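User: Carbohydrate kinase PfkB domain-containing protein. Structure?
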Amino acid sequence: MLSESASVEEMLKVAVDYCTDLLHHIPVVMVTLGKYGLLLGNRDQDDPESPIAIRFYPAGNVASDTHTVNVSGAGDCLNAGMMHFIIQGHNLDLSIKAGLMAAQHSLQSHSAVPASITPEGFTAEKVEEWARFKATDLTGSQSLRSF
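Assistant: Predicted structure:
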């Protein structure tokens, strides 16, 4: 269990450990980390012994540009934005960024699902423009030293 004063590095280490354990049983794990972003772990679905990949997606603009009005619905919007992009055939990286962008819209709204979340407002181009950050590969423990 982490204390409220735990560093981002400590939090990520614990999340990576839990994620790694779960990936031996299920092929994809997403751990939301609140204002810090999310952790995504995956492996080949058909081979439980396949290599594990773990990436950290910082909250990006969510943390820096957002004046939080309401947290209700942010996780739902994150999932909906991500799933919308996956269904549209976009890659996982862009899909996660779309989810984070949808979460930002929710955090800035009094509504759990704001009217600003529309297919026209969430094109690949608009998500790429918004997402000025890159995921960090945390597959190797030495990657945690960069935080």
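Helices lie at 8-23, 61-65, 74-87, 92-107, 124-130. The chain is about 40% helix and 15% strand.
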